[in-house]
Design goal:
This protein has about 120 residues and is mainly alpha-helical. The protein has a domain of about 80 residues: Substrate Binding Domain Of Dnak, Chain:A, Domain 2, CATH 1.20.1270.10. It is built from 3 helices and no strands. About 10% of the residues have low confidence. Helices cover about 60% and strands about 0% of the residues.
């Protein structure tokens, strides 16, 4: 059980480090230097904790990074919402209304009711 706990903690930490580093590279121009420094420091703390193999240390470092990550993400989201109220969120995130669900306009729909017969290769002989 301890071994499984350790593996899960390491996987969670690795995943969080990857997500955080990706966010940093994607949004580098939108994050101020202080926040970038905080994130990088926490990422290094998680990496150091991963090397130590101490589950408690890994979990604490992961929790600290998660808190900083969410604080900065929230700040970025609010800044984006204030500068461009018509477009909520970041490009590529959230639900996309142009791809979701059936069409709402029933007048434009052309539904064709068709009968079909399944033809298997075995039936052709």
């Amino acid at each position: 059980k301890k071994k499984q706990e350790k593996i899960e903690a390491k996987n969670k930490a690795d995943s969080l480090v990857y997500q955080t580093e990706k966010m940093l590279s994607d949004l580098k121009d939108k994050i101020d230097e202080d926040d970038e420094t905080k994130i990088k420091r926490e990422v290094e703390n998680v990496k150091a904790a991963l090397e130590s193999d101490d589950v408690d240390k890994i979990q604490k470092a992961t929790d600290d990074l998660t808190k900083v990550f969410y604080d900065i993400s929230s700040k970025l989201y609010q800044a984006n919402a204030q500068t461009d109220p018509g477009e909520q969120g970041f490009a590529g995130t959230g639900p996309h209304t142009d791809q979701a669900g059936p069409s709402k306009n029933k007048d434009d729909e052309k539904v064709v009711d068709a009968d079909y017969k399944v033809v298997d290769d075995d039936d052709k002989n």
